[in-house]
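I'll show a record.
***
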Amino acid sequence: MKDVFKLSVTLALICAIAGAALAATYSVTSTVISERKQAELQRALGELLPAADKFEETSRDGITYFLATKDGRLIGAIMQSAGSGYAGPINLVVAVDMAGAVQGVRITGHRETPGIGDRVTASAFLGQFAGKTARDPLAVGGDVQVISGATLSVRGVTTGVRNALALFQQHVLGGAAPVPVDRFTRDLATIPDGEYPGEGRGLLGPIKVSVTVKSGRVENVRILAHQDTPEYANAAFVELTRAVIREQDPEVDAVSGATGSSEGFVQAVIDALEKAPSK
């Protein structure tokens, strides 16, 4: 009986020592891994805004971005954003200096078609956004070059850059600046009757809608999902839907106090109508 007791105590001590050793090892390795990831992040951010010597992760109103400093002085920020491409959201980060000009763009995730839509990830394409500000049209086919066969992918990246500039104005400079959306030129009469899904980028995340078209007219816009603040966004969506139906044009004016949600709504409706088939 004593031997059994001694064996139990010995096993318990071995387990305790092993557990402590594993915990200590995990503590050390997890710290090393965390430090390594942070260093890699700082390097990646530095490639977008090389003038900075430090990047500080900041969150405000559900938006996460990186403030860039040089010798302790704020020189810009790197904003996370997204736009709706052909196959889904295109996630990107945009470096902006304190003059509000784009310094660099990098795609961080997408599901666009290989060899066609994924050409928007090329540095030659992304480089054209350098120097752009919220005052520029950022119009696909205008000051933004179209990639043959990948118009919706180009539109998604362009929307993402616009959103990033709007977020920079609002969260870094402290004032929201209205950002124009692409001109919608499609004839509604060419769209068959039906319900068409679309997606845009709101203030806090994607806005998904379903647009009903009947007899060449927009009959309804139904919100399927969104992440924006309900007390502001929901009322804006009702007002925007009425405006779209009244004017038969998705490019309606933003609702005061809900600019980000309004822009996302307009983008989503345009996305739905652009993707709809033709008669």
In short: The chain has two domains: 54-172, 188-275. The helical segments are 2-48, 123-126, 151-172, 230-247, 259-275. The beta strands are 54-60, 63-70, 73-84, 89-97, 102-109, 194-201, 206-214, 217-225. Residues 13 and 19 are 10 Å apart (CA to CA).
